[in-house]
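Action item from last week, closing it out:
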Amino acid sequence: MRACVIRATGGLDRLQLADVPLPSEPLGPRDVRIAIRAAALNHLDLHVVRGLPVEHRFPHILGADGAGVVDAVGADVRSVKPGDRVMINPGVSDYTCEYCRAGEHSLCVNYRLLGEHVAGTLCESIVLPEQNLAIIPTVTPPLSWAEAAAFSLVTLTAWRMVVTRAQLKQGETALIWGIGGGVALAALRIAKLRGARVIVTSSSEAKLAAARQLGADVTLNHRTQKVSQEVRALTGKRGADVVIESVGEATWEESLRSLGRGGRLVSCGATTGPKVAIDLRRLFWYHWSVLGSTMGNDAEYREIVRLLGSGELRPIVDRVFPLEQVRAAFERLDQGEQMGKIVVEVAQ
């Protein structure tokens, strides 16, 4: 089968389209084989190409998000059948450890992400546990393969950050950095569903204009404006109740300066670097909560799929590339040009 792989880490020149063997082992009782139609890119894919501290079996297939058609099922599978259109939850748990039994699947001691720890979705066929699939909801207009592929990782990540970890409430103010990326856009949608006032940032005036159309209450250009000063001014010097942070070193200090008393900062990424500092006196004096967040559990995934089916949280697709142009898709993501998700069409 065709797949986008790397045989070593480095730059985007490491990307290759290659023929690799189809999954050949017999399906386990609760395994499902999916014929992939589309796969969406995430910043995680860039990090994997450049070399995360993870051991890979090369050639390594990239891609975390995907959607496709069920091709075959194991003997005990009940929730899907051959021919069903499904989308993929990229976080694979063992579903047996103490955290999984407690319903905290993304804390699983054997947690793995597709495309990072194991072979991913940028290929024609993949085998996954039944628990990692959801039937694509019926909505009007129907979801495209690109939209279905673009939904899971960023929406689940944003839901856990905004709802479960930050517990954002109606009437509160949330600051979201870097609108245009998938997590930030999903966080904007979710925060507005919660009835919050949302401030978003970007260095692109076009992205800020698009964010206003999507419901952002205030937009700030972090290249030309001092975000913390603007947030303080907009909130009567109170500061934001919640800061959604995925950038890391470049924005960390401004995130803290934007945070109000009793505020919650939630981080899911470190795109510009992992090393940050904090003045502990400010932490305890202002009763801040600094929270980490990665993906989400099965119940959260089912909830966001339910909301998608009710017409909420529809993902925004920036551009779709054929598999033959996967390098161009990665380059667009790397340059930060996108407003929404970049998707690769694997098969029609």
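Closing note: The chain has two domains: 2-153+296-345, 155-292.
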